[in-house]
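Question thread 4412

I'm putting together a teaching handout and wanted feedback from people who do this every day. The idea is simple: show students a protein as raw sequence, then show them the structure tokens that encode its fold, then repeat with a second protein so they can compare. Below is the first pair exactly as I plan to print it.
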Amino acid sequence: MFPVKCFVFSAALVLFLTGAFAASGGAEAKIEDVASFKGAQVTGVTVTDKGRIFVNFPRWREHIPCSVAEVGKDGGYTPYPDEKTNRWGKGAPGDGDVFVCVQSVVADGDRLYVIDTKNPMIGKTVAVPTLYVYDLNTDKLVRKYPLAESTRPGSYVNDLRVDRDHGKIYFTDSNDPGLIVLDMESGENYRMLDRHPYTTAEQDHITIGGRRHDGKVHSDGIALDRKNGILYFHALTGKTLYGIPTSQLIGRHVDEGKISSMKTPFPDGMIMDDRGNLYMGDLEKSRIVYVTPDREIKVLASGDGISWPDTFSIHDGYLYFTNSRIQEAGGDISNMEFTLKRVKLPE
């Protein structure tokens, strides 16, 4: 979700073969419309347990409608939690509770987690990147976590996953490669695999529709296997998926012999369902694929309804995803439509 996020999927997948990516055939899921945003480049999406839908629009341009929005049943959207919080302007202070450049929103339980990179236009941070936490019952800010210990002036904190079992939150940094771990109780935060080959981009471009799209994007997509205690992460401009035991992140000790890897397409965001399927985009082929617990790689959906599938969320048997059209959005986007879609999960 950034303009330019053999491995162990579970204990049973230790023998997963590495090599070239191949996806099996079969019936694909129908792509359904949810919402459309004219002239507003959407990246993140999350659907709460109660079906509320939130999206975000990063400040990759000077003018955006808002940073975070809630999508209504009619497809319209309103700034969240209010207009004032979304009203930051160039040159204004960035260290308060006003959103500067939000890159991801994640609902977990009765909380909404909003990561503000504080890095408009993907240059340098104008304040300390901060995680804002909202109570979905009251829509009030209940806590914020400045990531002062774990970020640098060039950081772009990209995506996150909440590990309530261990009281941790994990993040990727796409501009200064590495993983970030936050303790939810103390607020302490630190970096892991900092500028490590596993979190660093493998190349400087991808190719979509025969056209080269330049840019290095480091650790980006992230997914949490809660059952087996594994965090998966992936550079956007890279074809290697890594899985690290969360015990290493919590214990601050890296054992590369227990970090697994697998070759995949170039993805952006990733997500895992409660059946052990790991979903990701295949940016170059404009499709969504998934790896099953039986070690099969399958295509969930493809076609014209997919254009840079950016971020995923799962609710009520559906996979929701945004089309950020990054490969097409180089100039004036005022007449472009950016969409939120959904597809039925496999049975």
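The second pair follows. I'd like the answer to focus on this one:
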Amino acid sequence: MLKEPVSYSIADTDVVRLIQVTDPHLFADPEAKLLGVNTAASFQAVLNTYLATEYPADMILATGDISQDYSPQSYQHFSATIAELNLPCHYLPGNHDDPRLMSLHMQGPHLFGQQRILAGEWQILMLDSTVRGKPGGYMAEQQFALIDAAIKAEPNKHVLLVMHHNPILVECSWLDQHCMSNGDAFLKRVSQYPQVKGALWGHVHQTIDTQYPTAEGGIYLMATPSTCIQFKPKSSYFALDGLQPGYRLLELASNGSIQTNVYRVPGEKFSPDNDASGY
């Protein structure tokens, strides 16, 4: 049975404004580091960078790998930090997350784990691409059923699909082992719905903006940098990039078009260490 969505009345009915944050990899200890980067500090720096813009976003999408150590405290830290933005935050799990702990400890008046969001002329679907105990992803039939039922329930709304894993290969051979294993089938199936305009994910710790061609003109495919460490693009072996942590802003127009940009923390404060303890 299709569950009721979270619905928003958007002030500017022509545009839905989103901020995406992804892969913060937080620890119970706020001083802990991942490959030389203090993930709590880098997450805070990303949010501060956004706040400095005074951009009027309508909501936040958090696309997984909230925790690095599966601790209740890591989810509590996320909840407390994200509350500073005073915006509704919709989240989904990544391969480093425990969905049960997420639901128990990501609590607050602005935190939502529901899979359907209605805003303006758009329907946003927060999909679960995780496979318990594995770093790679898979889009299960239950998620396809959700997509189908949601579109049938709101056939006149444009659709943004949001997930953790990448449905396309990113030309990093070590990282592509951990993609969505049925990504080709996923894109082929969702491309049959003209309502689907975009797909958004995290996981790969780098920026991707490309198109999946369809009869209706294409699905905009987007990956977003982590709020902590970055993976070097097109590397055959595990390698870190020196680019700073970042986030993505998206504007979903009432005509179905998507405008988006990635923004990063200014300066060079966060420098990863390839030789530090592993990812």
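Top answer:
Good format. For the second protein you could add a caption like this: The two ends are 38 Å apart (CA to CA). Residues 39-53 form the longest helix (15 residues).
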